[in-house]
Amino acid sequence: MSTTTPRGPIPRTPEQDPRLGIAFDPPWKSAPRPTHRLVAIGDSLTHGFQSGAIFNTDLSYPAIIAHELGWADRFRFPRYDGFGGLPFNIEMFLRDLEARFGRDVDWWETVPALLHARRSMDKAEDYWERGPGSVLPSATDISHNLGIFGWDLRDALDKTAAVCVKRLANPTDNLLRQTVDHADDLAALRVLPAPPDGTLTQFTAAARLGEDVGHGMDPDHGIETLVVFLGANNALGSVLDLKYVLSDGENNAFEDLDAKAKFTVWQVEHFSSELEKVAAAVHTVKARHVIWCTVPHVTIAPIARGVSVKMERGSSYFPYYTRPWITDRDFDPTEDPHLTGEQAREIDAAIDGYNYAIADVVRQARDGTAVGAGGDRKDWYLLEIVAVLDRLGSRRYIEDPLARPPWWQPYPMPSALRALDPVPNTHFLTSDGQRRVDGGVFSLDGVHPTTVGYGIIAQEIVNVMRLAGVPFFRPDGVTPRQDPVLVDFERLVRRDTLINHPPGNLTSGLRVLAWADETLDLLRRSLRFGI
Length: 531
Fold this sequence. Notes:
By secondary structure, the protein is an alpha/beta fold. It contains 19 helices and 13 strands. The chain is 35% helix and 9% strand.
């Protein structure tokens, strides 16, 4: 665990070697490839959530990796094609607002614009709860992308299709809070197969794929690479709600699917208790390689904007964190929602504790000391996504050299992103009415990546897969790739509408988002999924 100084906990230093310095000589070098080349278990960052909705799932990081593997035509993932996705697409809404009112919403148009916002939210609610979006497609095959937005460790362990159906039994048409009830559960029913009993969790679904060895395929592993990227939602509520509420261990409330909703940050001991069960579940999955991603520092996300200047010289933290549309001049700590700098420091310290625990899980699997492993060693890897975001952190480190820890180096942006003007950064996305003038890593919800942001995650995972000896092929799936296997960021830039053509009304649109958040609780209810 981290040590402390008079100024607080010393931040964790990320591991430099995904293998944690533990060599492993796999026994399957001459075995045929497994049936399923890539499976991913995770939350919204794996699902492909963006700008308040799940919609472009063909551009999630697992789908991007499948494209680079030459396996895109066999990679299975859920789709959410109606009404801009689930639960509420902020980008689509701002573009619709621009088409109706122009790039600037004048003062006399404010009321009609806000009424239009309410109608749009109501239509989205009707579509997904009672309209075409409520009709589930018939699916018999298990998805390779098993990410489900909004889920934390306990959800991944306990939730099944049957549980989700039960939670969705009584949707309400709420006139004041018009967002989709339990949107994450509705989304999950397009991920988890629902046979008559509907008993598969994310982990048991992956385990079933792991048993699918196929004729002439690897007889010991049904999955070549399994990615596990969970844990962000065990702390993300703090910046979504701008509240610091630690998990309660009384009666193990943090394990209860309903009671845990009130917590915004899991205590490290509670997270570790959950992680132990998650690791045991992953051990049952027959995968050659498992890549565990660390939890990013959620306080870097621009949904919680640091106010004014840092707390002190060389600090990583601002005195307050509030919504991106509240300016320093307008911010009032007695009136506006906020976290304090000390709370932000405590949140990051908790996340550091989560990541120590995740690293220990990988270490024990690699050296054969995991509980119940019987000395068997696994080819597991640690991917420090937390370090990737820290290295991209504009206000925290890039613009404040004195705050940089000794290990810090700027993230090497791919050439296709370096060629953009401006180069994408972690500020909140803004435009001048014609083009993007700031931001680009985060989408319009201030939490989830843009398409090129997902490309960065994909590239980091690809790097670890190559380290593990995973072969990559051309799109034909036959011709081996000998190049360093760089993600095709030019393709992603072309697909990224926020990068190449952001809504022209972002500045005035933020005023509407501010109203929707303050009046309808839009961000909390859309991003915390109807709790």
